[in-house]
Amino acid sequence: MASTIVNVPSNVGAVKGLDCQSFVGLRPLTNVRSLNCVRTSIKASPPRRFAVRASEQRDAPARKLGMSDAECEAAVVAGNVPDAPPVPPKAAAPAGTPVVPSLPLNRRPRRNRKSPALRASFQETTLSPANFVYPLFIHEGEEDTPIGAMPGCYRLGWRHGLVEEVSKARDVGVNSIVLFPKFQMTPTGDEAYNDNGLVPRTIQLLKDKFPDLVIYTDVALDPYSSDGHDGIVREDGVIMNDETVHQLCKQAVSQSDWGEDVICITYESWGGAIRAALDAEGFHDVSIMSYTAKYASSFYGPFREALDSNPRFGDKKTYQMNPANFREALVEAHEDESEGADILLVKPGLPYLDIIRLLRDNSSLPVAAYQVSGEYSMIKAGGVLKMIDEEKVMMESLMCLRRAGADIILTYFALQAAKCLCGEKR
Fold first, then answer.
1. Which of 91-105, 307-321, 340-354, 361-375 comes out lowest in average pLDDT?
2. pTM for this one?
3. pLDDT for 402-423, tens place per residue?
4. What is the full DSSP assignment across 149-189?
5. Which domains, and CATH codes, for the chain?
6. Whether the Cβ atoms of residue 240 and residue 232 lie closer than 8 Å to each other
7. Is the pLDDT of residue 350 over 50?
8. 248 with 267: CB under 8 angstroms?
9. Catalytically annotated residues
10. Do 244 and 270 touch, CB atoms closer than 8 A?
11. What b-and-e string marks burial along 292-302, b requiring 16 or more CB atoms within 10 Å of the CB?
């Protein structure tokens, strides 16, 4: 056996006393006769003790003794101690490392980072497929059409490709989607509230196949407007706000007829009219996610290519927020809360982490972040060019959005990220 039994003679009898001022720490004492601070009678030490020496065979498998619990205990009492695990060797420092005394550091944060198990124990932010909302592009055709500026994304045929993609997402725990349609456009966006249009038919199909699927739909005119703006545009280029809101109310009611769960209001000045329209038709349970802090960003380019929704003239800076503004987001948030919003969204996501945190700290409503097409495409491009590790950057970016305060994340990475979280091997 690798264990060794060592006899340790004891020459200390009953301890009568101890001079507390003479000794500090655990100095070995013999023939102690006095005790000034505590008077206690102590029985004599046992006549022998044993010490266990670790086995020299580090990788040897554990060997069962074939003994009962009682027999094992008896063997230990008799001094037949089994081998202890091998002592790990102390890591050697590089040659030339200076020998210095330990610094008097009461707190060394790396103690809680030294192993994967410890890091997982103290992780403050978690990421789950349930946090993702999967944006999906749909069209009337049968075939899935790739989107050049967004590798891995397609305009999905609503009857087949869409159903297959939703099934894949549900298999890895993503059960929320948002739909973006692509079809012919008109100046007033009348197709937006066609009860037999692409979006209502798609909602009906998906709810029939997946009753518990959470469906978000975009209530906006830009995918339907031939001008590419979020509202009806006057001849002089001015967006007609009240007329636009009238159309959006009809669109929201039309889509809710077929069972959508959440409508996403991308237009900034809806004044509670959409909530009132839904309630008037009995759709009290349909939630509203307002694009509260939607910035006039340059990160939307690939999305506009996917839907062919680039503005035909002018830009959107007259009704979307200035990227230089911070406090304005609070004004928009307070307004949306008073108008009946159930969720506040920040768009884009990663470049606006400070805005996500601002809303999180100032509102009790759920906060959403949209990791928009430009963010997605940049990570994809960097991965293709081998400039970054696509998977690691993807997961880090999503974790950062959660850490900033986002409860849910609209991301084109939803399926890919959920597969990573589920440990699926590629």
1. 307-321
2. 0.78
3. 999 999 999 999 999 999 999 8
4. TSTT-EEEETTTHHHHHHHHHHHTT--EEEEEEE---BTT-
5. 1-60 (no CATH), 130-421 (3.20.20.70)
6. yes
7. yes
8. yes
9. 294, 347
10. no
11. bbbbebebbeb
